[in-house]
Kinase
Amino acid sequence: MAAGLVVLCGTSFSGKSTVARELARRLPARVVSLDEINERRGLWGGDGIPVEEWGRTHRIAQAEVLELLGSGVAVVVDDTSSPRFLRDGWRALAAEAGVEFRLVYVEADEATVRARRESNRLSPSRRDVTDAVLDQHLAAFEPPDPDEGALSVDQLWNVLR
């Protein structure tokens, strides 16, 4: 798999950050995490963030990604990447930068997501997501459509072999 821009898509607690770190190691690539950008900005999505602030965070991420791609560095974007217009935007950015684009769907069912969140509450490895924010997130999440050509995590690892 030629490195360029890899965008992860999945719900909270689906395993995106774990996949991002491993993918960055294997390619090699740099991870641009929207959660990390929010933290730098003093925001945390698990508490709920106004849509205008998410827009600002997304624009910061786009600028960081363009800078890295422009210097020849492959990038993995760690974000839920929902709704679809965000994924389409990343695809257009990759085309503008002249790099290959890959979308990876890190899928986890609701029971798994909720179990991981509860486990994290008992032994925190990341900040919590409130019940209300998680409920809204799961209800509004838009998984990739077939025409987006998303790879599953298993397909991704097979491509990288």
Q: What stands out?
A: The chain has one domain: 1-9+21-103+140-161. Residues 1-9+21-103+140-161 form a domain with the Rossmann fold fold (CATH 3.40.50.300). The first helix runs from residue 16 to 26. The radius of gyration is 15 Å.
